[in-house]
Amino acid sequence: MNCKTCQTVFPDLLLDPAAPANASARAHIATCAACAQELASYEATFALLDSWHAPEVSPYFDQKLAVRLREEQAAPTPGWLERIKTRLLLNTGRQFRPALAGVMALLLIAGGGGVGISTFHRATPASPVSATVNDLQILDKNEQALQQMDQLLQDDTPAEDGGTPQS
Ligand SMILES: [Zn+2]
Question: CA Rg, the chain, in Å?
Answer without folding.
Answer: 32
